[in-house]
Amino acid sequence: MLNLVLFGPPGAGKGTQADFLIEKFELTHLSTGDLLRSEIAANTPLGLEAKKYMDKGELVPDEVVIGMIGNKLEANKEVKGFIFDGFPRTVAQAEALDNLLNGNGMPVSGMLCLEVEKQELIDRLLTRGKTSGRSDDQDESIIENRIQVYHEKTSPLKDYYLAQDKQYSIDGMGTIEEIAERLSETVNKL
Ligand code: ADP
Fold it and tell me: Which of 9, 10, 126, 156 shows its CA 20 to 30 Å from the CA of 113?
């Protein structure tokens, strides 16, 4: 099984590159952001709870996203592999993911971190906000908060995966095709 964690700050291009990797390596996409937005669209209690955090650019509580991922893993046992996009975002989430995957004998194969300069992130998110309808992409102070939360709570995960010898930094600046090529080269070596 090939299990990839696609990692990087908001606006790094995880969703775009996930589409490419899914196709090329026949993986199943698990994006916590997408899953949470579907819960909001369906007006579920989980969605209503999550929205309070997402609107401010804060992280949704660990137990909520961990429960959601656990259900999806349970429901997709026969697949070739997963691409985790936007998850894990905290050390507690990474530990929970390891427990879920190792229990089934299918550990994380590698964590691919897209590295992008801060101003480029802000520009990409504001551009996306013009067409995506995502309110968290339309306000620069919320974008700044998401980047700040990334540095405080999520980027420490690089050390978590480095300690397992699974962390790969990928230059996320350039064209979509250039970045896809860099990711492929790394995945082919896993
Ligand atoms: P981006 O990476 O562009 O910020 P996402 O769609 O991945 O976009 O996430 C949007 C929001 O959903 C986050 O700001 C956060 O509030 C919430 N979210 C998504 N994934 C997680 C997670 N793993 N843990 C906690 N909150 C999450």
Answer: 126
Selected catalytic residue, list 51, 56, 128, 166: 128
Q: For residue range 32-46, what is the model confidence (pLDDT) as tens digits? A: 999 999 999 999 999
CA distances from 74 to 69, 80, 110, 164 (A): 9, 14, 21, 25
Tell me the pLDDT tens digit for each residue of 100-116.
998 878 899 999 999 99
Spell out where the chain has E strands: 4-7, 28-31, 82-85, 110-115, 167-171
Q: Which of 36, 38, 62, 111 has most ligand 1 atoms within 8 Å of CB, for mutation?
A: 36
Candidate from 89-93, 135-139, 177-181 with smallest mean pLDDT: 135-139
Q: Whose CA is nearest to atom 12 of ligand 1?
A: 33
- Write the DSSP string, 40-74: HHTT-HHHHHHHHHHTTTPPPPHHHHHHHHHHHHH
Give whole-number Cα distances, 2 to 84, 129, 134, in Å. Answer: 11, 32, 31
Task: Answer whether 33's CB lies under 8 Å from 85's CB.
Answer: yes
What is the DSSP-derived secondary structure letter of residue 8? Answer: -
The model carries a pTM of 0.93
CA 10 remoteness from chain centre: 9
